[in-house]
Automatic annotation (TrEMBL):
This is NCS2 family permease. It is a multi-pass membrane protein. It comes from Natronoarchaeum mannanilyticum. One of its GO terms (molecular function) is purine nucleobase transmembrane transporter activity. The lineage of its organism: Archaea, Methanobacteriati, Methanobacteriota, Stenosarchaea group, Halobacteria. Signal peptide: none annotated. It is found in: Cell membrane.
């Protein structure tokens, strides 16, 4: 039997009204639209410093290795974790969905857990592994329905928008379009766009990327990042700007050794503050669970996969792929893996089976050849992706019932608190606390479950302990 016939039988092409050529094209399309994560995730996850050696972006730093080497390690890990999840999606779940470390949770990892809370990155990885194992267990026993009911609906709908604003703030600051209090005298202000070459090129690159995206160009985000980086290198080589301003002073040597990262989570379990660790695990799990579930349903709708009740049949299988990817990613050294909404582009091209995902996974592995380029792309260029994705995520706000005060207040608190405290966890907590309070105030306390009251109470205690400086490692 020919390979094409074997693949057709295994993935069920006839049953899903598709063929090998369509599935391959769909896989290529999905990869192009989500491949930006290969260069963006390492930039978000790695600690970055300025010329004076001051930390400008918190994250993973490994003694004895340069920033460029750590970025390349993280690029390798990003690819391997993504491929692991995608292959499970292809061969076990037989769905055309691509997966990779999620934007938002990698920022939570670096900026909140490692940066604001002062928790070692090894412990943050231990939390990712714990969340992944917990996700595997709960998926295996089919506890999804109970968990979904436990979290307030307005908070679930608001998280995406809040994360979008959070990502936009991180991206705009890295691009020097927005500056902080130490430079502006206010909490936030517009950067010096007229004379700062980084800000100028960032603005041009951002609008060029948005124009590509608006025109429906496949791979618009990664294309915008590459074009902006090439412009920076060109201006540097042409002598318009000094070395180190718009481009690194030199290309780094290739670094494929991930031994310093892989298995580092084991050390992270030592001297763990149980309360803080539980909050980190909870946040990773909450965002990962609902982001993945929401994406699966959304992309499933585009592919006409949903049943008459609007549910994705056998959703536990793609959820298991997500859980396995998260666990593998944490073990190797990256943050939580989730299903990408960009998978919808492949579905729109006709992708209907796991063959689409298999192509995506193989292309991720092939991209190992260009890992050194991850460190050659300047931070301002890679952060364009954060702003573009942030704009896309703002669309989630339309799902909130703003005319219902019991929804608008918890959702509003979630969205506002998340970017202003630089913490996804605090935004979720604010929404969860406000939900039962508002429900009780409007005479609808019967709609609040005991589990929701317990969650709200636990977060109140946490805020008291956290802001009181009781937690070890508190900022």
């Amino acid at each position: 039997m020919a390979l094409a016939d074997t693949l057709a039988d295994f993935f069920g092409f006839e049953e899903h009204d598709t063929d090998l050529g369509t599935e391959i094209l769909a896989g290529i399309t999905t990869f192009l639209t989500m491949s930006y994560i290969i260069v963006v995730n390492p930039r978000v996850m790695a600690q970055q410093t300025n010329a004076e050696g001051e930390v400008t972006s918190p994250g993973i730093a490994i003694e004895g290795y340069t920033e460029a080497e750590v970025i390349q390690m993280l690029a390798v890990v990003t690819i391997l974790a993504s491929a692991a999840a995608i292959f499970v999606m292809a061969l076990y779940a037989n769905r055309p969905f691509g997966q990779a470390p999620g934007l938002g949770l990698n920022a939570f990892f670096a900026f909140t857990v490692v940066g604001a809370m002062g928790i070692p990155w090894e412990t943050a990885l231990a939390a990712v592994v714990t969340e992944g194992v917990l996700f595997i267990f709960l998926t295996a026993i089919g506890a999804r329905e109970y968990i979904i009911k436990l979290f307030p609906e307005p908070v679930k709908f608001a998280v995406g928008t809040g994360i979008g604003l959070f990502l936009a703030l991180i991206g705009l600051e890295a691009m020097q379009i927005v500056v902080g209090a130490d430079q502006a005298g206010t909490i936030l202000a517009l950067g010096n766009l007229a004379s700062n070459p980084v800000a100028i090129l960032s603005v041009v690159g951002l609008f060029a990327t948005l124009a590509l995206y608006a025109n429906g160009i496949r791979g618009s985000i990664i294309l915008g990042i590459i074009l902006t980086a090439l412009a920076g290198w060109g201006l540097t080589l042409g002598g318009v700007t000094a070395e180190g301003v718009l481009a690194p002073q030199s290309l780094p040597n290739a670094q494929y050794n991930i031994a310093p990262l892989a298995g580092a989570f084991v050390e992270g379990f030592q001297n763990v503050d149980a309360f803080a660790f539980a909050l980190i695990v909870f946040t990773f799990f909450f965002v990962d669970f609902f982001d993945t579930a929401g994406t699966l349903v959304g992309v499933g709708q585009a592919g006409d996969f949903l049943d008459e009740n609007g549910n994705l049949p056998d959703i536990d299988k793609p959820l298991m792929a997500d859980a396995v990817g998260t666990t593998v990613g944490g073990i190797l050294g990256t943050s939580t893996v989730t299903t990408y909404i960009e998978s919808a582009t492949g579905v729109e091209e006709g992708g209907r089976t796991g063959m689409t995902a298999l192509v995506v996974g193989l292309l991720f592995l092939l991209s190992l050849a260009v890992v050194p380029l991850a460190a050659a792309i300047p931070s301002y260029a890679s952060n364009i992706a954060l702003v573009v994705v942030a704009i896309i995520m703002l669309g989630n706000v339309t799902d909130i019932r703003w005319n219902d005060v019991t929804h608008s207040i918890p959702a509003g608190m979630t969205i506002i608190i998340m970017p202003l405290t630089f913490s996804i966890a605090y935004g979720i907590a604010a929404g969860i606390i406000s939900y039962p309070v508002v429900k009780a105030a409007t005479g609808e306390a019967r709609d609040v479950s005991l589990g929701q009251w317990a969650l709200a109470g636990a977060f109140i205690v946490y805020f008291f302990v956290r802001t009181g400086g009781v937690l070890t490692g508190a900022a």
